[in-house]
Design goal:
Blueprint: H1 6-13, H2 27-37, H3 40-47, E1 50-52, E2 64-66, E3 70-76, E4 82-89, H4 101-104, E5 111-117, E6 121-129, E7 134-141, E8 144-152, E9 159-165, E10 169-175, E11 197-201, E12 204-210, E13 216-226, E14 229-239, H5 245-257, H6 261-275, E15 280-282, H7 286-302, H8 332-336, H9 338-342, H10 350-358, H11 408-423, H12 426-445, E16 449-450, E17 456-457, E18 461-463, E19 467-469, H13 473-493, H14 500-509, E20 515-516, E21 520-521, H15 553-567, H16 575-587, H17 591-602, E22 610-612, E23 618-620, E24 623-624, H18 627-640, E25 641-644, E26 647-650, E27 661-668, E28 672-679, E29 682-690, E30 696-699, E31 706-709, E32 719-722, E33 725-728, E34 735-740, E35 762-763
Parallel strand pairs: 1-35, 26-30
Antiparallel strand pairs: 1-6, 2-3, 3-4, 4-5, 5-10, 6-7, 7-8, 8-9, 9-14, 11-12, 12-13, 13-14, 15-27, 16-17, 18-19, 20-21, 22-23, 23-24, 25-26, 27-28, 28-29, 29-34, 30-33, 31-34, 32-33
Helix pairs in contact: 1-6, 2-3, 7-18, 11-12, 12-13, 13-14, 16-17, 16-18, 17-18
Length: about 775
């Protein structure tokens, strides 16, 4: 990430007047500006700000900042007069590929800055201003108080901290041991990287951390005083294989220190302010509404299209209980990224870009006997370059071998399919999805064999984290989706591919899922779900693949039975289990159940020693896992908007507890941007803008007679397709507005009424 260019500095200068000079504004004045301006986007995001009235003790409670690369967390140090500022970076990893990724390509600890006061810290009053991605407030000590603001710059790997006040305080840095924190399968010959070296270059202090494999990473920082304010600039730079990290870190801090901080802050805020205008969501339950906006903030903190795909910690480092040191591809990445499509910031989609850039590394996960140049697979854990490390290939189907991880790649590519369907960018289909999915399906083609029934059967594989089974439902659902998608994609791309007949045969002859009259779909042939299972692997066909549809009456029974059995035993569920159950309920027309499952998770319920924490992070045991809260945000979208199999559904699963709801610019499959209002228990109006000219079938839900007009108020032709459902011939760039006949509602997003007295997320109360 480069330095601030002269052009960027000039553009940012226009925003400096609002900062009041040399950046000390903090969150409270921004809040006042939001209410004074009447800007609904700013007002609703400001309402979601997180608040700390007491000192957080760990990452599970503290505020967090990041830009997809540099991550920062704030919480109490080991002594009562110390604030700890934990630093981490999503690119900082080991490079010893002789061991599996969780060890050899492990994310590495960096260290933490400390702000040490002369007196003990007695109180804090902090606000995390989401709209500006800035933490601000006061720290009170027995020797006085200090006001501070902190941010991680969006365009540069810089932590900036502004301090003012009477309390004396000194900055320091403590490096952490540069070694994997994972203990599972850790080889006895593993050694930590060399000890760090502390030094200085003029006014810049730094800590250089070399790696055994070459290159390394360096933390650098400098504080300067301007008037009554102290300004800290700190960074982490990583270089591999060339040792460029130290020079880059020092140079970056020098450049930041020579730049007016108001210019830096103005550019940072401009990106974040624009980000929040990508879409809009408001619901009556303000705790849920605030949670939703915090997850968008967290997602934008955690990922960028040009950066690493999200690992289990995001860009942060959990100081205790941190065994998930790499990228988890058997569910975690897959459930994290759908919200990027629906909430409409495509610049956060690292999954598509990862497969575009590093697909050749997928051959490393194929067992050597099957590496034919036309076969891909994806093991886990892996690193952000899709490398498994060591000899950790996927399993070989069959009873005598270790046979797990076979479906990871196809499920990961379903995220690319969603990116394509939400954008209709043919380049994603042609250049990324089609060639990679064909090679992913090829792995299964080695093992599919016709049985006496004439069906294609699959030898034993593993349903993730549950059981081995022949004709494993998890794998069959992914094979069936891949075969159908490849056939349809070849037609869309007008490719005369000789493999199409084989793909079509797989789709037609693949064995149906094995079922039980009570349990519905089984794990596989003769293998029932006999106990609670946190993964919903055997339900992918229901969600997110949507192979079976509630709109088809013949599908409902098997959907209902399978879901009821899985959801009937929840003692081993984790956070993403409740999020998946909410989304599945939404697609099965059960809005009250959808909301109930979401609330169980958001209420901090402890199940199997997992819990949503006060800052909306999520712990499993003591470990940080980023995916569950973010996928719960997608569950909220699934209540408001669904688009699949050619039907766009508005407010398809809104609970009766939500008489009002409003959204704007949510993105749906078909590259539709949708705005809508729900008032007094009924849909009031819907506006659909088509970016690609795809066929539009709209289930609008507006009672009574309707008008359909374009963006200029002219009538559009439409045809009824069923109760509350119409088709509209809408070309590329066209807009359709659907209202009750004769009504003229205000077609603007609104912050709907609700309970605003619930505490903010964070630590908003003295005693909790």
């Amino acid at each position: 990430m480069g330095g601030l260019s002269r052009r960027s500095m000039l553009k940012a200068a226009a925003g400096t007047a609002a900062l009041g000079g040399l950046w000390a504004q903090g969150a409270a004045p921004a809040q006042a500006q939001a209410h004074a301006s009447g800007d609904i986007h700013r007002r609703i995001v400001d309402d979601a700000r997180m608040v700390w009235k007491r000192m957080p003790k760990s990452w599970q409670e503290g505020p967090f900042l990041a830009n997809g690369f540099l991550g920062v967390q704030f919480y109490a140090g080991t002594r009562p007069n110390v604030l700890k500022v934990m630093l981490s970076h999503s690119r900082v990893q080991d490079q010893r590929g002789q061991w599996e990724a969780g060890i050899g390509y492990s994310r590495l600890p960096i260290g933490y800055l400390t702000l040490t006061f002369a007196g003990a810290i007695t109180a804090v009053d902090w606000r995390l201003d989401l709209y500006n991605a800035e933490l601000g407030g006061t720290i009170t000590t027995t020797q006085g108080s200090v006001r501070f603001s902190a941010l991680v710059h969006n365009d540069q790997d810089l932590l900036l901290v502004s301090l003012s006040g009477v309390a004396a305080a000194d900055w320091g840095f403590t490096p952490l041991k540069s070694a994997t924190t994972r203990t599972i399968r850790k080889p006895p010959e593993y050694t930590a990287n060399p000890d760090p070296k502390l030094a200085s270059a003029g006014a810049v202090e730094y800590c250089e951390q070399p790696l055994h494999a070459g290159g390394g990473y360096t933390t650098a920082w400098r504080e300067r005083t301007i008037g009554t304010r102290r300004l800290l600039a700190a960074t982490v730079a990583y270089g591999f294989p060339e040792p460029t990290h130290t020079a880059e870190a020092i140079s970056r801090v020098h450049r930041a220190s020579a730049t007016n901080p108001d210019l830096l802050v103005a550019g940072h805020r401009r990106w974040w302010n624009a980000f929040y205008r990508r879409s809009f969501v408001s619901v009556p339950d303000k705790r849920i509404q605030r949670f939703y906006w915090i997850q968008l903030y967290k997602t934008a903190c955690a990922t960028r299209a040009h950066g690493p795909v999200v690992a289990e910690w995001g860009p942060w480092f959990p100081e205790v209980g941190n065994s998930w040191t790499a990228v988890w591809w058997n569910l975690n990445v897959q459930v994290t990224y759908p919200i990027v499509n629906s909430s409409n910031p495509p610049e956060l989609d690292a999954v598509t870009e990862t497969f575009r850039r590093d697909h050749a590394n997928l051959e490393l996960s194929v067992p050597p006997a099957y590496r034919d140049g036309d076969t891909y697979a994806l093991s886990h854990p892996g690193d952000w370059r899709l490398r498994p490390g060591g000899t950790r290939a996927v399993g070989i189907p069959g009873p005598a071998t270790k046979n797990d991880q076979t479906g990871n790649l196809i499920w990961g590519l379903h995220n690319v399919w969603l990116a394509y369907r939400h954008s209709m960018d043919v380049r994603v289909l042609r250049d990324v999805l089609y060639p990679t999915l064909a090679k992913a399906l090829n792995y299964y083609r080695h093992f599919l064999a016709a049985g006496p029934d004439g069906r294609l059967h699959l030898p034993m594989t593993r349903s993730p984290e549950y059981a081995d089974a022949a004709d494993c439902t998890y794998d069959l659902s992914l094979i069936r989706w891949a075969a159908r998608t490849l056939v349809e994609s070849a037609a869309k791309l007008r490719i005369d591919d000789p493999r199409v007949p084989a793909w079509r045969e797989i789709g037609e002859k693949l064995v149906p899922y094995h079922q039980d009259p009570v349990q519905g779909v089984l794990i596989g042939d003769g293998v029932p779900l006999a106990e609670s299972h946190r993964h919903f692997s055997h339900l992918l066909w229901l969600y997110p693949l949507r192979e079976k549809l509630w709109d088809r009456p013949g599908d409902r029974d098997v959907m209902r039975r399978t879901f009821a059995h899985w959801s009937g035993i929840q003692d081993k569920w984790h956070g993403y289990s409740f999020a998946a159950a909410s989304s599945m309920s939404s697609v099965m027309d059960a809005p009250e159940e959808a909301l109930r499952y979401l609330k169980i998770f958001l209420d901090g319920t402890v199940v199997a020693d997992t819990q949503l924490t006060p800052n909306t992070m999520y712990r499993e045991g003591a470990n940080l896992a980023i995916e569950s809260p973010i996928t719960a945000a997608q569950s909220i979208v699934d209540m408001l908007l669904q688009g699949d199999h050619g039907v766009l559904k508005v407010f398809p699963s809104v609970s009766s507890a939500w008489p009002d709801a409003s959204f704007e610019s949510l993105r749906a499959e078909g590259a539709f941007l949708v705005d809508a209002s729900h008032r007094n228990g009924a849909t009031e109006w819907v506006r659909v803008h088509s970016e690609a000219g795809e066929p539009l079938t709209l289930r609008h839900g507006i009672p009574g007679d309707i008008d359909v007009r374009d963006a200029r108020g002219r009538r559009l032709p439409w045809r009824a397709e069923g109760p509350g459902t119409i088709s509209v011939p809408l070309g590329r760039g066209g807009t359709a507005v659907v209202t009750r006949r004769g009504a003229r509602p205000e077609l603007e997003p609104r912050d709907v009424p609700g309970d605003r007295e619930t505490p903010a997320w964070g630590l908003d109360q003295e005693v909790r």
